[in-house]
Design a protein that fits this description.
This protein is an alpha+beta fold. It is 20% helix and 35% strand. The protein has one domain (5-268): Sandwich (Jelly Rolls). The structure holds 2-acetamido-2-deoxy-beta-D-glucopyranose. Residues 1-21 form the signal peptide.
Length: 275
């Protein structure tokens, strides 16, 4: 009888499936009804936007420090006015938040990757980038490594932004400075219409004749970071010349907005964490 072997095989196969990312296990659809769809046995998530609504999901788990990766393929063609998001957020008026937002554009014109960090309800720390590839042709990996010391935003393994915890030095000089480190966050993703501001500051409107707009997600991977893993990753970035050069390359060639350099917005000088 080969039944026991078969059974063993089935058991192994199903535990492997449980261990790998599966949107059925990992997320809840929170708005937009069936505009958010889980496909391919949980391997893929599709977000849709039409004239009446967008949609969104949130992770079942909460994290206080984590390494989160997601692969996304953004709305192709004329995506002007649409915003696709991938972010971490806690609840409440003094919430913390770590944002990746993708601002759509007319066909052939570049998406903007918009990043921000909120701590204790205060944001205003925007940095924006163009991407060095067309994010609509294929899946690319977007990651957040959030530890008690720093937040690293990465695209396809390249760091694009590092936000350090500088509470020890700055807490004394600026009571507004906080670092997100006390509130657990969930992971969110959504697709919605923001044509009042997203594309060229709201000048280009969503073309509803192109609706529904669709973005696809896969390989959602969220791991609570033990302080050991996090320390190892930080040392890796600090000591890895290639990663450092990559970060500089992105910032030099693809960063299009940095709140720290916005002298119109901060005529008296930028916020203290910029120095
Ligand atoms: C859209 O394309 C224009 C022209 O290239 C560019 O100025 C803008 O930054 C692009 N992105 C968005 C989201 O407006």
């Amino acid at each position: 009888m080969d039944t026991p072997l078969h059974l063993l095989f089935l058991l192994l196969a199903s535990s492997a499936a449980l261990a790998s990312a599966n949107f059925y296990n990992d997320v809840d659809i929170t708005w937009g009804n069936d505009r958010a769809k889980i496909l391919d046995n949980g391997q893929q998530l599709q977000l849709t936007l039409d004239r009446s609504s967008g949609c969104g999901i949130q992770s079942k788990q909460e994290y206080l420090f984590a390494k989160i990766d997601i692969q996304m393929k953004l709305v192709p063609g004329n995506s002007a006015g649409t915003v696709t998001t991938f972010y971490l957020s806690s609840q409440g008026p003094k919430h913390d938040e770590i944002d990746f937002e993708f601002l759509g554009n007319l066909s052939g014109d570049p998406y903007i990757l918009h990043t921000n960090v909120f701590a204790q309800g205060l944001g205003g720390r925007e940095q924006q980038f163009y991407l060095w590839f067309d994010p609509t042709l294929d899946f690319h990996t977007y990651s957040v490594l959030w530890t008690s010391n720093q937040i690293i935003f990465s695209v396809d393994g390249s760091p694009v932004r590092v936000f350090k915890n500088r509470e020890t030095e700055l807490g004394k000089v600026d009571s507004n400075y906080h670092y997100p480190k006390t509130q657990a966050m969930r992971v969110y993703s959504s697709l919605w219409n923001a044509d009042d501001w997203a594309t060229r500051g709201g000048l280009v409107k969503t073309d509803w004749t192109k609706a529904p707009f669709v973005a696809s997600l896969r390989n959602f991977n969220a791991a609570a970071t033990s302080s050991f893993d996090a320390a190892a990753e930080e040392v890796a970035l600090e000591s890895n010349q290639e990663q450092k050069q990559r970060l500089q390359w992105v910032r030099k060639n693809y960063m299009i907005y940095d709140y720290c350099a916005d002298t119109k917005r901060f005529p008296q000088g930028p916020p203290p964490e910029c120095k």
